[in-house]
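Posting this for the archive.
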Amino acid sequence: MRLGSHRQLLLETAVSDALAEHRGHRSNRSHHPDRPDLTRSMSSEQPKGPKHYDLQAVEPSDFETLTFLLAHAENGDVVVVRSKDEGLDARLPDPLGRLTLRGWQAKRYPPTKIHWKQCEESLKDAVALWRPLQVRLVFTHDLSANDQTNFRTKLAETHPYLRLNWWGDTEVQRLLLDTRRAVGRRCGFRRSRT
């Protein structure tokens, strides 16, 4: 089931507001808290560059929601997995619902402190229940060279039948920026070039 564009906008706005509050900013919206302010002119804002979200400050459940929203923005058929996720926070089921074509798992660890055993357990759980063809781990930071080596040796090489990849901080930031731009275009907002 696809989310309507208004509902998708509400979800994306809620995540954006939650991330802003984690950074100490308050929303300046004075209308109903569940609705985005579509009357505010985006052209009056003069950003100095793309907004950078501190993903390390996001609560684990909010990071799982963010992972779902980014996956859903990529494909509208992605569904959220809640409570006892069995290795996935979001999944793209096949049309019959028998297989999971792709899965996403949020992993919120401090840089250089990835718990590889927990990642391995998540993959084992995901394979046992969901039978995914591909799994993407979503980290709150970019992987160092050592992390990338560990990802390959501890996860990818132990699951050769599974296509594994990841999103790090840079990719999540890019996806957030792209999603905000796409929402603005769908709602008719255009940035002034003055």
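The longest strand covers residues 100-107. Residues 25-31, 38-42 have pLDDT under 50 and may be disordered.
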